Amino acid sequence: MKKYCVVCGSENFSRSKLYCSLKCKNQDYYRQNQKELLEKHNEWNNENYDKVRAQSKQWKIDNRESYLKYLEDWREKNNEKSNKNGAN
């Protein structure tokens, strides 16, 4: 009797009855508990606001080229918002 993964539908060769891999298991857990996980994440971010801000600032410094590319892509995709914000 063949087993199939409940997440991706592929044939399941693992010992688990429901999942073919840890990735599928984690994906299913996140889907079932998304609201609670996001609340915890946002709560932690709010409690550690200065730390999050410092890490973000440091990442932008360390990855300047990637950050500038991201900004350029965002401006192209959001041309109206970009122009509106630049006019202020």
Overview of the molecule:
With 88 residues, this protein is an all-alpha fold. It folds into 2 domains: 1-32, no CATH class; 39-87, no CATH class. The chain has 5 helices and no strands. It has helices spanning 22-32, 34-47, 49-62, 64-77, 79-87. The longest helix is centred in the middle third of the chain and has 14 residues, at 34-47. The protein starts with 21 loop residues before the first helix and ends with a helix. The model has no long low-confidence stretch (mean pLDDT 92).
What topology emerges from the helices and strands here?
Elements: H1 22-32, H2 34-47, H3 49-62, H4 64-77, H5 79-87
Count of DSSP helices? 5
Helix content: over 70%
Low-confidence stretches: none
How much of the residues is beta strand, in percent? under 5%
Quick structural summary:
This protein has helices at residues 22-32, 34-47, 49-62, 64-77, 79-87. With 88 residues, the chain is an all-alpha fold.
Question: What are the salient characteristics of this protein?
Answer:
single chain, 88 residues, mainly alpha, 70% helix, 0% strand
